Amino acid sequence: MGKGMSHLSKDDMRFLQEGTNFSKDEIKQWHKGFMRDCPDGQLSKEKFKEVYAQFFPGGDPEAFCDHVFRSFDKDGSGSIEFKEFLLAINITSNKGDPKDKLNWAFSMYDIDGNGTIDKSEMESIIKAIYNMLGSAIQDQPIESPQERTQKIFGKMDVNNDGVLSKEEFVQGCMNDRCLYQMLTADGDSSKE
């Protein structure tokens, strides 16, 4: 298994060049690092959490990692292969297109996969974000996950049906810079 996984096929390289904003050299660098950390070519949920935790030393990113991992593991295999990994990195990086980011964020917030986000799903993700940020936000006055959810639904649920469709979610975020940054975990405010 190791030998076949150690190099990207021409088809995979072409697919990643067309499907991401990374250059051929960047893809090779990402692949090299991925194979160093995951010699069998599969990123397990445990390894993913271990890597993610390094970015949030003052918090507990476990619940958030579960949501992110689920949204990246497109085939539901319980591990992430390199192509899934790089497509996910592309979407979540500052190179990613804002609408692609929002579509990905929607799939992460739609925990049960039914095509809408209800208030309990939104609260669950917001709690996970708060836990992940941990000590970084403990000195700041923050709304409870329930209060934050109510505000988000107040702005986004245009037909007042108690759930957010993908269209409501994407449009709501595109119209509100603050919501966009919070719901996509994007600190870059240079988007148009």
Helices and strands in order:
Elements: H1 2-6, H2 10-19, H3 24-37, E1 42-44, H4 45-53, H5 62-72, E2 79-81, H6 82-92, H7 98-109, E3 116-118, H8 119-133, H9 145-156, E4 163-165, H10 166-174, H11 177-183
Antiparallel strand pairs: 1-2, 3-4
Helix pairs in contact: 4-5, 5-7, 5-8, 7-10, 8-9
Tell me about this structure.
This protein has 192 residues and is mainly alpha-helical. The chain has two domains: 11-57 and 77-92, Recoverin, domain 1 (Orthogonal Bundle); 98-183, EF-hand (Recoverin, domain 1). Helix content is 60%, strand content 6%. The chain has helices at 2-6, 10-19, 24-37, 45-53, 62-72, 82-92, 98-109, 119-133, 145-156, 166-174, 177-183, and strands spanning 42-44, 79-81, 116-118, 163-165. It has a two-stranded antiparallel ribbon. A two-stranded antiparallel sheet has the order 3-4. The protein starts with a helix and ends in a 9-residue tail after the last helix. Mean pLDDT is 83; it is low at 188-192.
What's a concise summary of this model?
The chain has 192 residues and is mainly α. It is 60% helix and 6% strand.
Q: Which architecture name of the largest domain does CATH use?
A: Orthogonal Bundle
The biggest beta sheet reads: 2 strands, antiparallel
Q: What is the share of helical residues? A: 55-70%
User: Which segments are poorly predicted (pLDDT under 50) over 5 or more consecutive residues?
Assistant: 188-192
Widest sheet, order of strands: 1-2
- Work out the radius of gyration: 18 Å
Looking at CATH, which topology of the largest domain would you report? Recoverin, domain 1
